[in-house]
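Worked problem 6 (solution included).
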Amino acid sequence: MSYSIDLSGRVAFITGASSGLGAQFARTLACAGAAVVLAARRIDQLKDLRARIEGEGGDAHVIGLDVTDLASIRAAVAHAETEVGSIDILVNNAGVSTTQRLQDVTEDDFDYVFATNVKGAFFVAQEVAKRMLARAKGAAPGTFTGGRIINIASMAGLKVLAQIGPYAMSKAAVVQMTKAMALEWGRFEINVNAICPGYIDTEINHLHWQTEQGQKLINMLPRKRVGKPEDLDALLVLLASSESHFINGAVIAADDGFGV
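Solution. The predicted structure is:
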């Protein structure tokens, strides 16, 4: 007996899709059959990813997006729905961080992190959810009522880590944001859940794991290893699917036991 999830006919909008986890999320959902909208500021990288997805037989579209600019959010979502169709799945992934002690955090550092991780994530979800709500109420056309919103938080939002205080605070806000959205929008068949990844090896941090400091951190982890982006694939596809209809407001740690 085998089991598979098919996202054919669904449209997925992925923020921060130009690299790292966002790029992997886009490839994974495309592989599962969804038409994926790749949204970020780095258009050239999005185009490279689109070519890769299309080469693998997937359906991908590129849209510029700056999540710190509300006009950009509104324009990107409208463009996506005009070009591809109603958004059924949102992967709210765009995020940034800084590394310093709390006493060294400046106002600019604080605003930089919260503008993307909290304010940006909220207004992207709000803009997509408004359209999902309109379809659920019969006020807008669409073949699929309801929707799936997957907020990418972090295990740092559940377990505070040194020298990334503003990042941890912002991701804790994403956790509470997820629960608030699930509470208000759940009755319209819009399921909102959060994934809290642990340490994942991506092109952004790959070299760090080879350093003495990186190796010390790995040795502190429960199984002395970091994850790979594809380790989140199964969880992502489940939360994006109709099969997750009974999962709403969940905050799921995918951290190899680090937060235990």
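Discussion: The CA atoms of residues 86 and 143 lie 8 Å apart.
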